[in-house]
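Re-run with default settings, no changes from the original entry. Doing this only to confirm the output is reproducible before filing.
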Amino acid sequence: MKIGILTFHIARNYGAVLQCYCLTETLKRLQHEVKVIDYRPVYLVKAHSLFRKQWLKHPLSLLRFFILFPSALLRRRKFDHFLASLPLQSLAFKSPDNDFDAFVFGSDQIWNKLICNGFDPVYFAGEAAFEGKLKIAYAASSGHVQLTDREQETFLRYMQRFDALGVRETSLQDFLQRHGIPATLTVDPVVLAGRPVLDAIADKAPARRGRYVLCYEVSPTRKVRSFARRIARELGCDVLPVARGEYASGRKCVSPEAFIALFRDAAFVVSSSFHGMALSLMFGKSFYNISVNDQQDERVRSFLSVVGLEGRLIRQESQIRLQEAIDYDCVWKQIEGLRASSLDFLKEALRSKRVSNPIT
């Protein structure tokens, strides 16, 4: 079966490119021919531009741009090198003529109206190219965005275009099921792919010597770095901060391959990111996720509660307990159950008989 993936593959952040790569590899390991549809909407291109016009109005932003541009450009090149490993293929969205058997939409916030300037018809399977094809959503998300009554009506109508719905959050699953639309909770592709795929990526990066506490933040804050320094002092090692954004000063700029390797080889991980937590779990690391805000924490809290590690999401340094080891035999058993159910969802969805779901 030939499958096309539609997601945010051009977003230059670690979570976006890794979820795309991991979903691609998972489908390939199921013996499918897989392509990532090279969709580059204007809103994503602008959001990830190295230069933004509004900076011209703010001297400090402009100064920061000139100071950090060399490292930002280096990071961009590292990401582009990784993206070149994806099996990209263009698609004429307005034409029904293509040789794909199925399309998988996700993961990531492809249904978030704030990111996509409304409801992007491509990510809602609303183009002619998808007619008569199997349409599957995998770990897709609408984010934590309030919809008007009219938007809810439109959203629910669009959901009926899909032959199978795998979603990222329980809140979206509950919303769909309340309106009679079946939806399955599915794990992030990074968790779905597991150690074999992650190790293969990390092995491409040069080895790093020495013990370190890895510090990875969604948004730079003194709080997360303070936690990392406290733990590093107790463990007698250095803090290695990694930049999420292209203009993050004072943080290491690494390729996606090196990013994964840093998690694998860390003595301890301090993060405020879902993928920071996920990679820590995949590699069996001692870690803490630092609470930033309730909305951002929800996804982390939900996953940690399933695997019995609620205590690894903390707000205060007084909650740090380095002597408390994680029982990874128990954790991995829970993760394996989540992975198996998500993999079963994908397999069953791809085996299902195509239904008639016209573009409405």
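The radius of gyration is 21 Å. The chain has two domains: 2-190+340-351, 207-324.
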